[in-house]
Amino acid sequence: MQKNEKDWWRKSVVYQIYPQSFNDSNNDGVGDIPGIIEKLDYLKTLGVDVIWLSPIYDSPQEDNGYDIRNYRQVFEKYGTIEDLEHLIAEVHKRDMKVILDLVVNHTSDEHPWFIESKKGKNNSYRDYYIWKDGKANGQSPNNWGSIFSGSAWEYDVNTEQYYLHLFAVKQPDLNWENEKVRENIYDMMHYWLGKGIDGFRMDVINFISKDQRFPDGEIKDGALYGDSGPYFVNGPRIHEYLQEMNQKVISHYDVMTVGEMPGASTEDARIYTNPESKELNMIFTFEHMSLDQKGDDKWDLEPLNLIDLKENFEKWQVGLHGIGWNSLYWNNHDQPRVVSRFGDNTGYREKSAKMLAICLHMMQGTPYIYQGEEIGMTNVQFDDLSDYRDIELFNMYEEKQSISWSHDKIMEAIYAKGRDNARTPMQWNEEKNAGFSQADPWIKVNSNYQEINAEKALADADSIFHFYRRLIQLRKELDIITEGDFQLLLRDDSQIFAYKRRYNNQDLIVLCNFSSEKQDLSKDITERIVDAEKIISNEDVSKPDQLSSYEAAVYLVSDGE
Ligand code: NOJ
Description:
This protein has about 550 residues and is an alpha/beta fold. It folds into three domains: about 10-105 and about 180-470, Alpha-Beta Barrel (TIM Barrel), CATH 3.20.20; about 110-165, Oligo-1,6-glucosidase, Domain 2 (Oligo-1,6-glucosidase, domain 2); about 485-560, Immunoglobulin-like (Sandwich), CATH 2.60.40.1180.
């Protein structure tokens, strides 16, 4: 066991399941909880410690469950509460843990609280949400835009006020200023923790505290809406709320918490994740996911500059070392597939997927693997817009058309960044629908499933799957991976990502070639690794002074060697 059993999450690797697309046991085209249970042994073989389930709650599925209608019920297509209890028991039986998504910045507009709230200004639930009068000129209360395009305010004809929705119109924001809202949320958290879950991933949790002045945001170069971030990202009462939640709920259990936090800097993270703050164990940063775009618009594509990526990781690795804790990820249900994004999914799919895995898994923090990443699943390109499912993408399409983006330009952006890239069904085998379901899946399967699937990967000792398995194993064996400090090497090299971890008289040297060109290694590096033990690599016959295309290797050097 670890030094401090309570900090088990520091030695853990988390696997994220997007229930809708994982495994369909009753053949209705939608993944479900019994389907997840069927695959627990697969996850055990991979060696992960914790399973994070994206929302499994009752929902009209406007945003695939991130719009909750009932926090205490399971979405009927996923199964029942009993199924979920069974899943928790089966996970624990295998000595793994399970965490749920906590989506409390907003609910669905079909949640009973909102239905009440909408009934009238004097309704006792009115203040559960954020209602405002429009401006005197008949415009919305301020110029904030929704993250899913369009205005962030929706007018309600009956009560002649607007409600705030930072995401879809059907996702009204909760009013955290209202103590009753907070108490209700805390009760609901106790309910799930009482069922034995091992923690929460908290959806956009740094958005819950809004600046109560609700001012207009600055309109930046031709943008359609004002920059509202300064008024709700890491808002005025955020630390107070998280501390309250911790004190009233989290601190009563031995569980882990990870906060999804767009717009949180390392300085913020040093507060959120410092154990002394008593807030969260770790957060998800978005900084490394925003380097291949121009400005704030993720759809405005720009090639990645590797030096930016390296410096960004350095900032987080160094910034949180000894103070807070990092979460490490390349992928989740909102991001394109990393092998298509920062690797090469044509000529070097397996090799570049392994390189990316090494690069991330040798860092300090808790790694997250998103379903399918462990077999190197890739992005999709549907010709027909109607084959897509994601609300964000459809709203974006309309908005970009209104500012004269061509169809082709929008499709290119969807191919590169659309969230549906990550949401196609998990590829289990070469059978119909990749073995995900006998029925037509809710979203098309990626056509490459005969080449890329779990069955094949399991049978091939050299597969990406077994590579991830070894990386997870190494993390368990070598404390330097969890504890060591971080030093960036070859800072100015635009193709090689190299770094050193140091702990207890040992160095771990990690070398990753992010390009399809071979790269010469400087003398400084070759001298360090010449007598070192190579502990993992994606290349059998590597040259001592060169990295081949997408080659990655890790060396362990003890002092005196
Ligand atoms: C972040 C979630 O990861 C994403 O999928 C969702 O659309 C938004 N938050 C809104 O809940």
